[in-house]
Write a structure and sequence with these properties.
Layout (H helix, E strand, L loop, with lengths): L29 E5 L11 H7 L3 E5 L5 H4 L5 E5 L6 E2 H7 L6 E7 L2 H10 L7 E4 L21 H13 L5 H17 L2
Parallel strand pairs: 1-2, 1-5, 3-5, 3-6, 4-6
């Protein structure tokens, strides 16, 4: 007997995440470079983002064409804790916020994310910012991660909130909390 899949989120019906999506109008474009090993991850948050944010592009793979990823006429920014990265709060404090931005995120384990960075050298030439969240991630309850780590969804939402304000993202944060609770129930 073959499994039935949701036509929207593409997950097995038992693991359908559509009930956690919430349309969110981000004004800053987001691109996510997802490592292939994350595509079928039941605990991955990128599909929830892709179904919720209005201005998002998702690419799966390890090597990406520069022309597909970088946006002309926008300030392309990679959210990644490289040696050259600037903390998000410092960046916001010193940045001209009227410049239109485009945020790029890498989704994968630290090792796989670093590999994507190495395989796409043009990503090294753009501005890098890093995040430090003020509280522990609830996501750590369902997926192993380093201390101070967080999900791609949390990284995207916190970055967008820093530039666009909190109000638009409250419903997405609440949906994420419900998604984490759902994952906790699945793993018991």
């Amino acid at each position: 007997m073959s499994r039935e899949y949701c036509e929207v989120c593409t997950r097995a019906l038992k693991g359908c995440i559509c009930k956690f999506t919430t349309t969110t109008a981000n004004t800053t474009p987001v691109t996510i470079l997802r490592h292939p090993s994350e595509v079928k991850s039941l605990k991955g948050t990128v599909q929830l983002l892709a179904l919720s944010l209005e201005d998002i592009q998702l690419y799966d793979g390890e090597v990406f064409e520069k022309e597909d990823i970088l946006k002309p006429n926008l300030e392309n920014i990679l959210v990644f804790p490289s040696d050259e990265s600037v903390n998000l709060k410092e960046f916001v404090a010193t940045e001209q916020l009227d410049n239109k931005k485009h945020f790029i995120f890498i989704d994968g384990t630290w090792k796989k994310a670093y590999k994507i960075l190495q395989l796409n050298p043009y990503l090294k030439d753009i501005t890098h910012i890093n995040l430090q969240l003020d509280s522990d991630s609830p996501y750590a309850q369902v997926r192993k991660q380093k201390d101070g780590g967080f999900s791609t969804l949390e990284a995207v939402v916190n970055t967008l909130k820093a530039f666009e304000g909190d109000e638009e993202y409250k419903s997405l944060e609440k949906s994420f909390e419900q998604f984490v609770e759902y994952l906790k129930k699945l793993s018991t």
